[in-house]
Amino acid sequence: MPVISAVGHEVDFCIADFVADVRAATPSNAAELVVERADQMRARIDRAAERLGRVLERAVSARVQRHDRLDLRLTQWPVKIHLRERDRQDLDNRLARALRSRLAAARERFEMWRRRLERRDVRRVTADLRTRTARADSQLRAAAVARRHDAVRRAATLAARLDALSPLAVLGRGYAVCWNDARTSIIRSSAQVRAGERVHVALAEGELGCRVEDTGKPS
Length: 219
Prior knowledge:
This protein has about 220 residues and is mainly alpha-helical. The chain has helices at about 15-20, 25-120, 125-165, 165-170, and strands at about 5, 20-25, 175-180, 200, 205-210. The protein has a domain at about 175-219.
């Protein structure tokens, strides 16, 4: 508590003047000093409150923007998976159309040779050509089946890669994501929390609100 001496009689000095924090010439002057210091202190407090408010507002805005970016990234995964599935279906449709086109072309060639042989009326040549045509048709079908199986394997590989990259697949294998109570950052280390704090644990299905009992750190 500050002490102000205000005995008066400016031409004289007393012991209180030497031990006080401030010496005022008169009691009125002491009152003026106190009021002036109080006004200055209130002004400093007001300025500090304004600066603190601006700092807090910027910090909250930054955390909200970061949360929005993370939320947007999480919501984009189902869209990417849907696009990959659509690409796979498109590949299947294109492969089916190509197979039908190849088979139609093979049938047309077969019919062309059959008509030529009928015009020549050469049974032996016809039988040989029929055998060759059947063999070619069998080979074509085998090649078509192999191509389709290869396309299916490629589609399955792409789907597996998508599943491996999806955060939902990671959660589905039994893992979880731990957020702080404000959901502004992911907790990756026990050093980020203290006992008694609340955290949120995101699972493959649903979310848990938890309270930290022990962080495993030495007290």
